[in-house]
Amino acid sequence: MITPEVYTSLGLSEEEYNKIVNILKREPTITELTMFSVEWSEHCGYPRSRKLLGLLPKTGKYKSLIGEDAGGIVLDDLAIVFKMESHNHPSQVEPKQGAATGVGGIIRDIFVSGARPIALLDSLRFGTLSNAYNRYLLRGVVDGIQFYGNCLGVPTVGGEIYFDDSYNGNCLVNVMSIGVAKANKLVRGIATGPGNSIIYVGASTGRDGIGGCSVLASQEFKEGEEKRPTVQIGDPFTEKCLIEATLEAIDTGYIIGIKDMGAAGLTCTTSEMASAGNSGMEVELQLVPRKEQDMQPWEVMMSESQERMLVCVQKGKEEEVSRIFKKWDLHAVVIGKVTEDGMVRIKDKGQVVAEINAHSLTQAPLYDLEYKKPGYLEELNKLDINTIPEPKDYNLVLLELLSSPSLASKEWVYEQYDHMVQTNTIVLPGSDAAVLRLKGTNKAIAATTDCNSRYCFLNPYRGAQIGVAEAARNLVCSGADPMGVTDCLNFGNPEKPDRYWQFKNCVEGIADACRFFNLPIVSGNVSFYNESPKGVINPTPTIGMVGIIDDTTRICSQYFKKEKDAIILLGSTKEELGASEYLKTIHGYIKGDAPALNLNEEMAVQASVLEAIRAGLVNSSHDCSEGGLAVALAECCISFKERMIGATIDNLPFEIRMDALLFGETQSRIIISCDRRYLGKIEKIAKRNGVLLRIIGETGGESLRILHGKSEIINLPLNDLNRHWRGALEKQISR
Amino acid sequence: MKFGVVVFPGSNCDQDCYYVVSNVLRQQVRYIWHKDTELGGVDCIILPGGFSYGDYLRTGAVARFSPVMKSIIDFAQKGGLVIGICNGFQILLEAGLLPGAMLRNTNLHFICKYVYIKTYNHKTPFTCLCKNGQVLKIPIAHNEGNYYIDNLSLEELKRNNQIVFRYCSSDAEVSADFNPNGSLDNIAGIVNKKGNVLGMMPHPERSAEKILYSEDGLNIFKSIIKWLDKK
Amino acid sequence: MLKAEIRITLKKAVSDPQGLTIKRALESLGYQDLEDVRIGKFVVIRLRCKDINSAQEQIDGMCKKLLANPIIEEYQFKIEEEGRTA
Q1: How far apart are CA A378 and CA A376, in angstroms?
Q2: What is the mean pLDDT of residues A695-716?
Q3: Who contacts A734 (Cβ-Cβ below 8 Å, separation ≥6)?
Q4: Which residues of chain B have a Cβ shorter than 8 Å from any chain C Cβ?
Q5: Domain containing B113 — which CATH number?
Q6: Which of A135, A520, A608, C36 could make an SS bond with A689 (beta carbons 3.0 to 4.6 A apart)?
């Protein structure tokens, strides 16, 4: 007997339960009910976001691939596959394993398509470090990522870490992975061909994470809840073996389709592979390798034990494929076959315990949710710059900004990640984007993750657009042409109209910006319900972007390379302080509007820089973002610790307030340094693109000096800047 | 001449080592699966970095019992060249082909960064192209690089000139300040008494191409080739 | 069924930075009377064996061959009938 208690405990509403009864034309079995509850949960079925996600463009200037588990871009005969995913709620509860299994899950989504994973990036957000639990979370998450990623031999090459009060009670762990495959060897997550076999490979099934997906990811954290048992434990060694075995098996050509058992485990793979292949599937649960006794059928179907996959293999080739997995000491058991009746039929000891039409499982109901602009925003967006006192000591302000955890160097973190394994990393962590060579070609790819959640809080539409613009800008600064986007959209409870309004506006912003830049969104993820009694997170639509560098001799990075180089500022600076790090860190306000964004100007600045880098005219290139111009200049001086080079800046556009000039976060600005003999050529390029170019100073010396006429606004020795910037995070964490 | 790169379940620098030998140095190389007992007539064995068997129990503890290790021990006893890099070094220690043991880095973290190492014995097959005291810029990436050996055995290592590399500054200064993991006497790499088995924590295969920040690692591979050429 | 409980610890001469870090963490929580903290490994092996002497020999062999590294670790173990409370 299915009572309301039963289906509500699984996260289903009365309406959804009635829909299920309608679909089956009878009461569901417990197994069927749990299968619906996970497939229809927000994390798997996207009932509340699918409609809006339909706005995101799927095509762009390069050929895109949209797949079941990950998507990508085709580049000559290669496919660059990438995706970002969240593992927020588990990480808040058990940071090491939450982050570790987040890495495991995203990597599986990549190699399951036949692509070898070549890089990881992670975008992390935590509450302020003054809180001991947030320090514990940061240490735990970093530990989880290094524990899993290093063992797999996939380099963690980039990402970002931000701290903001809104993440107290809800940290965000978004992990992105990139893989490379020969385009004609890609495999999809489908099951077709009646009679073909369904093989279970990988680790055994236990009770890990049962209900993790439907229960954990689809609900807010309530006060004092003990959710630890639903977090999965990862085993990177098994996954490493799984990577090698899977790529070897795919090479045989006998694999029709393969899918990773991530959220909702067997339920997800059986139903989604059958649905994608427009076929059916029959599976016998007694054949599933188990690590625990007396598991009920619904437990086996819901289990989120890690490092498992489902493979659809050509009939007759089961032994050959299984042998490869067994060579790597992994389970490989035929547990079922493909049928042609479109039904997912689950048997336990020969008895049918679930029989559902595959499409009805994978097509979760679509919801139209109410949205309403939050009342507080109008007032919050008002910022009278004249009420903000100008600082007396700009040196102190710069040092304070450089040592604030969001802006400080993340070296303490990335030195714990193996970022060199696979010997493809040619721009190491610490620059605007990571750059990885593509062995066997003269090309390289650049990758970055970006999102300023404060901009998105104050102006969701523009903030989200800025995320796209900034990611593209970061890639261009490395010499790359942006190719494709993945996203991880993190928001609060969508059933609350103000949160849904934020979501809707962010998605629209991303869609418009991507269309403008002619970039497709090839894959992505939505994470809702990121709120707790402590509050709701800032809207955080994280953008992951990949770009292509056609010639590895034309790569750029952010730090000054030589003394006596000219320093150029491209783009115009407005008098705006809204939403800036400076306003928050120095004056204590989160107020104003997100910085203005003129997409045409942004495109022009990016085009100029890319052209100049490709022509071999540029020595360093760095965009202005959080902390503004002064922070960006400091980073150009000190980010390469083996060779720090100072600068004298004496020609800034001083018409606006000094603090807005130095710390305002006006968009579409890039600082480049070049040999003086190339100035003429660069000026021509800027002029042709209609971009404002200003020679603001020269590299050299042991300090960063910013002069206004004869007065020194900033004069700081590089060692001081470096000590504050590089040592800040470790100091904050070890309190 | 032929190189052999051993692959254990969990090795993850095998492909990088293979790439350097075949693509950069254009030498013959083959993979040797950990269950093989035939080495395939190779002249030099490379035990690559990674997390063999997940580093479970102790790093290298389980790998050293793989079937291939018997053949490698045999090969080494007959004078064959063996180089263990990072996890490979750890496996050689567990297998007793090199003396001592590895402990966890003193800061208890995994460390990945470029370091400098100073060459103390330039007469081994692995350093014959290096100058005495030459500083090499090569990256490390490990959790357990804190080399340990008892005092008496340390004296023996020194007496026999078995310490090949020590961590140092870019100016060749050797001190605790430039030791990333707390290893005894700043030791980064050693050879056995006979000098045909080398273990080193830094990854020369990661600094063997100009595009990768440093080419210094190439010296080690080229030394091996020169040595084998002479024979 | 016999059950062996094995304790593996670092030799006294070997420094234990993990133990030291944990000692400091405990002290910061207010525990002031700590002399020393050492971290080790605890292994439980259930043997399908009825003879305690044979079991002891087997477990000792396992420790020597694999479970402990004699250069840096030492071990002790006890073996009991499974089900008997300590």
Answers
A1: 6
A2: 97
A3: none
A4: 57-58, 61-62, 65, 94, 100-101, 103-104, 106-108, 148-150, 182
A5: 3.40.50.880
A6: A608
